[in-house]
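A.,

Following up on our hallway conversation. Structure tokens first:
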């Protein structure tokens, strides 16, 4: 079948008509409650991925869709799922604790975004939505599932946790949605996904939808294994990256990266910027230097408690927080409007991650800038990235005015921030060592492992040769028969047995 082009955004959004298809939502077979939600959201015409997948899903056929990030995949599967549930009543034997639809996302932030869009588009549909993800609200989410929801949105880990406790079951699922399927593989969730899919009704008895930025062989294999002969819809672009992203690369020494970042921020005056690093430690360091040089910046990473992450994202989306320093936790699935600049302070080691990072800007037809630092540590990624995106990234020259003198952050600030995150994550208990004690109470845990006996009793100091000392220190030289007895059955010498000379050592 021909592959259509489709995608949808609000008419009030600052985007050109070339990013929309000719298909209008009013022309689709959508129930009136959904059309009311679409109109209130300001949607008029579909985007390419929406125009390609919605007619298939609305007809009750499984679909697997591929499109660039930020092209409206979420709205496509939400409208299709709502419409299917409105047209097909729940099963008579359905329990209260059995959801009718399940939507799986790889990250907490993406699950929250899907739930937010579902609330807006399904405002008049009357469905009870449930949001489940790790890091917060364990008892609250459990109680919500026990009371029952129509549509369950969440991450695999927490959902499986409740399922194994028999808080709910998946026997009445009528719609299954798997979002960012390629990311599920990258994060190692695919076994969890298969666990959940195998506990749902057979593919022929439910509507299945799978969406991904790339339909790799492993994603297609998953689709055909757990879906009912899905139809593939690929929205190809001439470029892997968005057309309206202006990309530039600076070849910089490691010690120039922080001054260059500050210099660029001062010259560009970006109003909403994402700065990506490859590690949490680098993110904290960048944040500390930015704040000490006049920029309001915060960090979002895996160590930041979930409630604080949600608050920071809200402040960033509202414009109250101008700069967010992030690890790849923010690179996928988040629709943050009007991001003006993306800085790859550390170039990612995976070319696909580069595309997803810079995809946070220039969304919905807007324009944006993506700046990369090819430093001594991560410059090797440039070749792979340029090969993946299909062109060479323009290189800019570093001038002296872009390298200002910086004010260092207060001493110990980075370490103190890491300690605050750890205490917030563990509820103030601190990090526990393997023996159950607290690692931050000022005492170092005793030595462990095979070195323990060596460290526990230091060797005596020998000042003068003496017969008694000789007898105490010098062990008898083992004969070959003794060594053979100490060897393991494999025939190799025991790890703790060292070769010794046949002569008796002399002390003194």
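Then the amino acids I'd put at each of the 508 positions:
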């Amino acid at each position: 079948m021909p592959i259509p082009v489709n995608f949808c955004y609000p008419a009030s959004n600052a985007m050109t008509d070339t990013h929309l298809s000719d298909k209008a939502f009013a022309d689709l077979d959508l129930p009136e409650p959904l059309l009311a939600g679409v109109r209130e959201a300001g949607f008029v015409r579909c985007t390419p991925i929406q125009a390609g997948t919605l007619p298939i899903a609305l007809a009750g056929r499984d679909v697997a869709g591929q499109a660039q990030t930020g092209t409206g995949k979420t709205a496509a599967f939400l409208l299709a799922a709502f419409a299917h549930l409105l047209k097909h009543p729940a099963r008579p034997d359905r329990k209260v604790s059995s959801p009718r639809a399940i939507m799986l996302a790889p990250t907490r932030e993406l699950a929250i975004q899907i739930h937010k869009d579902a609330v807006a588009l399904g405002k008049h549909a009357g469905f009870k939505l449930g949001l489940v993800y790790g890091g917060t609200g364990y008892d609250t989410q459990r109680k919500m599932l026990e009371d029952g929801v129509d549509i369950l949105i969440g991450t695999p880990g927490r959902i499986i946790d409740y399922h194994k406790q028999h808080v709910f079951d998946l026997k009445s699922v009528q719609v299954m949605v798997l979002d960012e399927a390629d990311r599920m593989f990258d994060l190692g969730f695919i076994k969890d996904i298969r666990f959940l899919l195998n506990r749902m009704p057979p593919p022929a008895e439910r509507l299945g939808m799978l969406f991904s930025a790339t339909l790799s062989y492993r994603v297609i294999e998953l689709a055909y294994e757990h879906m009912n002969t899905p139809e593939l819809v690929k929205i190809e672009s001439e470029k892997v990256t968005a057309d309206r992203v202006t990309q530039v690369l600076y070849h910089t020494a490691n010690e120039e990266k922080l001054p260059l970042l500050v210099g660029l921020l001062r010259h560009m005056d970006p109003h909403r910027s994402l700065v990506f690093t490859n590690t949490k430690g680098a993110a904290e360091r960048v944040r500390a230097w930015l704040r000490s040089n006049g920029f309001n910046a915060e960090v979002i990473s895996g160590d930041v408690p979930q409630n604080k992450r949600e608050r920071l994202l809200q402040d960033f989306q509202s414009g109250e927080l101008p700069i967010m320093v992030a690890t790849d936790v923010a690179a996928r699935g988040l629709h943050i409007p009007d991001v003006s600049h993306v800085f790859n302070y550390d170039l990612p080691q995976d070319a696909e991650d580069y595309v997803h990072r810079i995809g946070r800007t220039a969304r919905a037809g807007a324009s944006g800038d993506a700046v990369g630092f090819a430093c001594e540590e991560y410059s090797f990624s440039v070749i792979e990235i340029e090969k993946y995106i299909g062109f060479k990234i323009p290189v800019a020259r570093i001038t002296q005015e872009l390298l200002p003198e910086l004010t260092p952050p207060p001493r110990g600030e980075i370490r103190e921030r890491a300690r605050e995150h750890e205490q917030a994550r563990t509820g103030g208990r601190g990090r526990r060592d393997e023996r159950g004690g607290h690692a931050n109470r000022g005492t170092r845990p005793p030595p462990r492992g095979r070195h323990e006996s060596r460290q526990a009793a230091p060797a005596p100091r020998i000042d003068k040769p003496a017969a008694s000392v000789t007898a105490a220190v010098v062990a008898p030289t083992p004969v070959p028969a003794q060594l053979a007895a100490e060897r393991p059955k494999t025939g190799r010498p025991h790890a703790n047995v060292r070769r010794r000379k046949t002569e008796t050592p002399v002390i003194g």
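The radius of gyration is 29 Å. Curious whether your intuition agrees with the design.

B.
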